[in-house]
Amino acid sequence: MELARATFPATNPFGVFAFGIGSHVRRGRPLATKVLNVYVERKTRSPAAAVPSIVLRRPKKPPFRVPTNVVATGRRPYAAAGSGSYSGLHPGAAISIRGSMPGRGAIAAILTTGGRATHALTAGHLFPSSATGTELAAAPDDGSAVRVVAKLAANFLDTHGVDCALLELTNAGSDIVNRAGPPLNDWLDASRVWSKLGCAFLATSNDYSQQTKTTDASMDALLFAPTRGNYWLRAGVATVGEITNPGDSGTVFSTGNSSQLAVGICAGAFGMHSIFEIFDRAMSLALSVNSSLTLY
Question: Which of 75, 154, 167, 169 could staple 173 via S-S, CB 3.0–4.6 A?
């Protein structure tokens, strides 16, 4: 992956906007062999710049040419806000961002301090750079008026390049927290998120999506958000097939049966995959700000 990152920077001439190790995808079907899948918008028979092979040079061993598979997705990734119905505050709930660049997104998790809901996690790309203090709005699930429910406390996309943000709930926000959405009782660390069955709770439809599986290894993707422009999501969690919509940014992908385990926070999608920031990485950064935070 490090060699791929050096080969395919943001301005690479090959049109590569994402890459990851996984099953060889041929005509939309995954095969048993493992390759470096490289994603472009379109393929041509005579490209101006052909995607190069990645050569791994190892001490005292012959060079190894990494099998590469170029996949056309038909469109570039998005990480944009859209519409969603309000349902109170819970994982997967719709929220509205106020300020100079308003938008819509979703909550990934509610966090508590001393037993009271005080904070939440969402995607960092929903906010412009250096936008601490930006207000967020939502509404109770009883249909009453929309109100300010949180403020941006820390955006880790600004400081760590990690696509997540910590929100501080207002009293009004704490009052409308409910138990809808997936019951997140734990989270999976980065070494255990691959090849897991799971589902996302979608803000755009206020329900669980079709169950799918994560890919076999991490994926990098160059995403675009109106609030941020282009930015890289590094070592993200991708799903086999696209399962999210514009407006689901920030929602949680989880796995498990009776106990749902958080896997990632929705960052975007590009036809072949939905891609998520690793939840364990987001929680670790939230705890670095406030070590007393726990999942609701």
Answer: 169
Number of other CB atoms surrounding residue 189 within 10 Å: 12
Residues present in the chain in total: 296
Cα distance from N-terminal residue to C-terminal residue, the chain: 35
Q: Which of 201, 283, 190 is nearest to 234 (CA)?
A: 190
Please answer whether residues 251 and 56 qualify as being in contact, where contact means their C-beta atoms are separated by less than 8 angstroms. no
Residue ranges of domains in the chain: 2-72, 94-179+283-295, 184-279
pTM (predicted TM-score) = 0.78
184-279: CATH architecture:
Beta Barrel (2.40)
- Domains 94-179+283-295 and 184-279 equal at CATH topology level: yes
From first to last of the 296 residues of the chain, give the pLDDT tens digit.
Answer: 899 999 998 888 898 988 988 888 776 677 778 889 888 888 777 778 888 888 988 888 888 888 888 888 776 676 654 445 677 899 999 888 886 666 789 999 999 999 899 999 999 999 999 999 999 988 666 666 778 899 999 999 999 999 999 999 999 999 999 988 888 988 988 888 999 999 998 888 888 877 899 999 999 999 999 888 899 999 999 999 888 888 899 999 998 766 689 999 999 998 789 999 999 999 999 999 999 999 99
| CATH value of 94-179+283-295 in 2.60.40.10, 3.40.190.10, 2.40.10.10, 2.60.120.20 | 2.40.10.10
